[in-house]
Amino acid sequence: MTCSHFEAGRCRSCSWLGSPYGVQLAEKQRHVEQLLADHDPTWLPPVASAQLGLRNKAKMVVSGSVEEPVLGILNPTGAGVDLRDCPLHTAGIQAALPVLAEFVTRASLTPYDVPGRRGELKYLLVTESPDRELMVRFVLRSQEPVARIRKHLPRLREALPALVVASVNLQPEHKAILEGERELMLTEQETLRMRVGGIDLHLRPQSFFQTNTAMAAELYQRGRTWAAEVAPRSVWDLYSGVGGFALHLAAGDRDVLGVEISREAVASAELSRDQAGLDGVRFEVGDATAYALGMPDAPDLVVVNPPRRGIGPELSGWLERSGVQHVLYSSCHAQTLAADLTAMPSLRPVRGQVLDMFPNTSHYEVLVLLARGG
After folding, report:
1. How far apart are CA 352 and CA 368, in angstroms?
2. Over the range 197-234, which residues count as b (16 or more CB within 10 Å of their CB) and which as e?
3. Which of 3, 14, 86, 332 is catalytic?
4. Which domains can be identified in the chain, with CATH numbers?
C-alpha cells in the first residue's frame, strides 16, 4: 500500500506503512506471544485485514476558512492537513468528504481556530454502514450555526443520498475532547444500521463501534464459535457496547445479559435485540465492575471487551474468586491484558488469536479464551 501523505511526511498515523504487510502481522503475533509467554495459550493464525478502504469512520478535524475548509488533522504547528482522500476510509466516506467540505462553505460554518479559540465547527464525524448508508455528525462549539445547518440540510441530502442520520454534537470546551455530552438530532432516523454477521446492530451517534467492520465480523464470529464449544447456559457480556458479542452469543434457551455504562449504546442494543427477536438477551445500564461485584451469583461464561486500560484489579479479582468457568477476553491493548491475566491465575488462557483491527499500525485486537484450571 502507498500513500502520498505518508510519503510526503504530512501524516504519520499509519506508522508501519513502510513495512510489508506480512512483516506487520508477524511482528504483532511475536509481540502478543512475548507478552503472554507465561500463560502459553495455543495460538491460532492471525486474521489479516484489508489495507485499503477499511475504516468505517472518519474523524476529521475542520480547519482553514469558510471559503476553503480543510478536513483532516492538525500538524505539530497547528496547521491543517487535508486528508479527504485518505485511502484508509471506505469508498463512501471518501466520496462524501468533498461534498461535506462544500456544505461547510454553503452553510457558513466557521472552522474552529484552536490557537485563537474562535470559530464553531470543530470536527466532522462520518460513519458508513455495510449497506453504504452514512451518519454525519457536526461537532460544534455552540448552537449558533444549527439553524443554518438545518436550512441547508435538504440540499446536502440531495447531494448525498446515502445520508440517513445527521446530528449536531455540542462541545463548548477548549480541550482535546472529541465530543460533548449533548446531541441534537437533525434527521428523523436516529440510528445507523450496521449489518454484521447476519445481525443488524444499530449505532446511535454517541455509541462506540469497531472502526473496521470486516474485523468486527470476524471477532464476533469467533466469539460465537468459541462460546458454542463450551456451551454455557448463562452469559454476561461486560462492556457490551451496542451488543455485538451479546447478540451473537444468543442461542436457544441461553440466558445472555449485556452490561454497558452508555445509555445510548444500551438503547441501540435493545433495538437490535427487539428487531432480531432475541428474547433471551437482556441489557442493563451500569458499570461492569460494580455490576459483577454486586451480584450474588456468577454465570457460566463472562465476555469482557474493555477499553485500553483493561478490566483492572477489582474485576480481575472478582473473576478469580467467582465460579465462572470460562472467560472470553477481547483486548485492544495486550499489555493490560497480560496484567489482568496475571491477576486471575485460576483462569488459564487455552486459545488466542490476533485480529488485525488496525493494519499499518502497532495496534491490534486479540481474543483469548480462558478456562478455570485449563
Report:
1. 4
2. bebbbbbbbbbbbbbbbbbbbbbbebbbebbeeeebeb
3. 332
4. 4-51+212-372 (3.40.50.150), 57-190 (2.40.50.1070)
332 is catalytic: yes
Read off the pLDDT band of 374 (50, 70, 90).
Answer: low
> Which tops the pLDDT comparison, 208 or 139?
139
Q: What grid cell was written down for 118? A: 474562535
Q: Is the pLDDT of residue 362 over 90?
A: yes
Strand partners, 297: none
pLDDT digits (tens, 9 = 90+) for 39-60: 989 999 999 999 999 999 999 9
Cell numbers placing 28: 504483532
Q: Chain centroid to CA 129: how far?
A: 13
Cell output for 110: 466557521
DSSP state at residue 228: H
Q: Per the structure block, which three cell numbers stand in for 88? A: 484508509
Mind listing the pLDDT tens digit for each residue in 101-120? 999 999 999 999 988 889 99
Q: Residue for cell digits 462460546?
A: 227
Task: Say how far apart CA 117 and CA 110 lie, in whole Å.
Answer: 12
Residue-level pLDDT at 179: 93
DSSP states of 84-153: TT-TTB-HHHHHHHHHHHHHHHHTT-PBPBTTTTB-SEEEEEEEE-TTS-EEEEEEESSSTTHHHHHHHH
CB-CB contact of 247 with 271 (8 Å): no
- State the DSSP H helix or E strand holding residue 365, giving kind and residue range, or none if neither: strand 365-372
Chain-centre distance for alpha carbon 243 = 12
Please give the Cα distance from 374 to 354 (Å, whole number): 20
DSSP string, 45-82: PPBP--SSS-BSEEEEEEEE-SSSEEEEEE-TTS-EEE
The Cα–Cα gap between 257 and 276 comes to 16
